[in-house]
Design goal:
Chain B: This is ABC transporter. Chain B: It comes from Streptomyces brasiliensis. Chain B: InterPro entries: AAA+_ATPase, ABC_transporter-like_ATP-bd, ABC_transporter-like_CS, ABC_transporter_ATP-bind, P-loop_NTPase. Chain B: One of its GO terms (molecular function) is ATP binding. The complex is a heterodimer of chains A (257) and B (270). Chain A is 79% helix and 0% strand. Chain A is an all-alpha fold and 257 residues long. Chain A has one domain: Orthogonal Bundle (MetI-like fold), CATH 1.10.3720. Chain A is globular and about 75 Å long. In chain B, 35% of the residues lie in helices and 24% in strands. Chain B has a ten-stranded mixed sheet with strand order 5-4-1-2-10-9-3-8-7-6, with helices on both faces. In chain B, β4 and β5 form a beta hairpin. The longest helix of chain B is centred in the last third of the chain and has 19 residues. The chains are: A mainly alpha (257), B alpha/beta (270).
Chain lengths: 257, 270
């Protein structure tokens, strides 16, 4: 079952790549705007050989990782505090609901005004976009604490901090993990968007440069790279999730009782 | 040892005022095994939570060894009915049992010793490495009991601990509790809605009235110390006692005026 799934997936991907090769070659679309797969592939090979490409990749990953780290720490800390401190959740709910839907890209002008094309511009957008994902999931997670589990902890004399650590945090962790996974994808999107629009160094800027200099296959090659990056991030996040939540219903298999 | 004096608990919220417990007074002596029975919904859990310091009573006091209970006291352990929710699924059995000990400033080796000993006495010596959800319901409740034992409490409060397990497992667990009680000399307050269980386990049975709750009757169980599922439950005296408790509970449900009987009283022979 699993084997045939992989085979089908590979076949599907191969067919897609073949289609990408055939459509421009048959003249259905203009080759100048939509180069065949093989030309994109050779442009990709050229990119990989170029030192500047790796610098750009490093810049993008730096912005992504730093921004994500800040957003996750802030989201978790704020989420736990807002839930634990009485009345704070009710007091902040409306503000959170107001700020959360503001698209991060709407802050691009602000980022440019504040930081120009520096890394900090990228960070501002990345953090703003991914912070809410983590915060909202943390808030849900903390609310999910089982009253019986909490009473058990209280009856055995566990103090506030011990209960946060041993009951609240493990309960919230599955939610936080989901938040981190979503935030990781959003952070990449925003990192590349910021580079593309603002011109901060990174893959996004390289895509913009390739586009303006009519290097269409290179542009596609870079787009492929960002796609692969997103894929790796998602697979990585899922692996971490599975490891950390081996005890959780969603991960543990059927248990013989 | 454990004194409940004029305990009253009123829940107020969303425009509804519910008097769960009206006026409860009773005592549990050191080393006693007392069963609390009452009709369903009579506030047994509320009472136990007040006694365990998990709920603040509206009026009245709970005294443990002469001191007023205002929060969960260190010498008291709680076993909940919902073992599946009371055990932490993210911790292995050994870690679950050990967690409360970490609050007690014990050395690592002493903690290990207590955990191993507690798991051994509930017959789960080799389950320390398993997760609770890998065990059957009965085994999970054993783990919860082991966690309470390892805590070395002087008083053990048990809130309908066997209501969610099957009849055979239940019989085994009842014998386990009686065995542990005789072995360790812990004071146990055991809440149940099962009359047979109350009579089989207890040295004394406190019958509660329907809500708003007061003590309907207290009676001493004059069955021999050595009890077993096969013989005790068919003994004529067992039948008399359970019939008596049953009648009291029926009376409680009908709301017959309460005759408070002192705890040394035993029901008349039929």
């Amino acid at each position: 079952m699993r084997g045939s799934g992989i085979a089908l997936g590979t076949a599907g991907l191969a067919a897609f790549l073949a289609l990408g090769e055939a459509v421009p070659r048959l003249g259905l679309v203009k080759e100048a705007y939509f180069p065949p797969t093989s030309r994109i592939a050779s442009a990709l090979v050229d990119e990989v050989r170029d030192g500047a490409f790796w610098t750009a990749l490093g810049d993008t990953l730096t912005g992504w990782a730093l921004g994500l780290a800040i957003a996750v720490s802030a989201g978790v800390v704020v989420g736990v505090l807002v839930s634990v401190v009485p009345y704070l959740r009710e007091a902040t709910a409306s503000t959170i609901e107001f700020l959360r839907p503001i698209p991060s890209v709407a802050l691009i002008p602000l980022a440019v005004l504040l930081y120009g094309t520096e890394l900090r511009s990228v960070l501002l957008l990345v953090v703003y976009a991914s912070f809410w994902q983590v915060l909202v999931q943390t808030l849900y997670g903390v609310q999910d604490v089982d009253p019986v589990a909490d009473e058990t902890a209280r009856s055995y004399g566990l103090g506030t901090w011990a209960r946060v650590r041993h009951v609240l945090w493990p309960t919230a962790l599955p939610y936080v993990m989901t938040g981190v996974r979503l935030a990781a994808s959003v952070a990449l999107i925003l990192a590349i968007t910021a580079e593309l629009v603002i011109g901060a160094p990174g893959l996004g800027k390289r895509i913009a440069v390739a586009q303006t200099s009519q290097a269409v296959p290179e542009m596609y090659a870079l787009i492929v790279v960002s796609g692969l990056l997103g894929l790796c991030i998602n697979v990585g996040a899922r692996t971490v999730e599975r490891r950390a939540l081996a005890w959780h219903q969603s991960v543990r298999g059927e248990v013989a009782v | 040892m454990l004194d409940v004096r004029g305990l009253k608990k009123v829940y107020e919220g969303s425009g509804r005022r519910v008097e769960a417990v009206r006026d409860l007074t009773f005592t549990v002596e050191a080393g006693e095994l007392v069963c609390l029975v009452g009709p369903s919904g009579c506030g047994k859990t509320t009472l136990l939570k007040c006694m365990g310091g998990l709920l603040a009573p509206t009026a009245g006091d709970v005294l443990l060894e002469g001191r007023r209970v205002t929060g969960p006291p260190p010498g008291m352990a709680f076993v909940f009915q919902e073992y599946g929710r009371s055990l932490f699924p993210w911790m292995r059995v050994g870690e679950n049992v050990e967690l409360p000990l970490k609050q007690k400033n014990l050395s690592r080796s002493r903690r290990r010793e207590l955990v191993a000993d507690a798991l051994r006495s509930v017959g789960l010596a080799d389950a320390a490495g398993a997760y609770p959800w890998q065990l059957s319901g009965g085994m999970q409740q054993r783990v919860a009991i082991a966690r309470a034992l390892a805590y070395e409490p002087r008083v053990l409060l048990m809130d309908e601990p066997f209501a969610a397990v099957d009849a055979q497992t239940r019989a085994d667990l009842e014998d386990l509790v009686r065995g542990l009680w005789r072995e360790r000399g812990i004071t146990i307050l055991f809440v149940t809605h099962d009359i047979d269980e109350a009579v089989y386990l207890g040295e004394r049975v406190v019958v509660l009235s329907a809500s708003p709750t007061v003590v309907q009757e207290q009676l001493k169980v004059d069955l021999p110390d050595e009890r077993d599922q096969l013989h005790t439950r068919v003994a004529p005296r067992f039948a008399e006692l359970r019939t008596h408790v049953y009648e009291q509970i029926q009376a409680a449900k009908r709301g017959t005026p309460v005759v408070t009987v002192t705890k040394s009283d035993t029901p008349p022979l039929h």
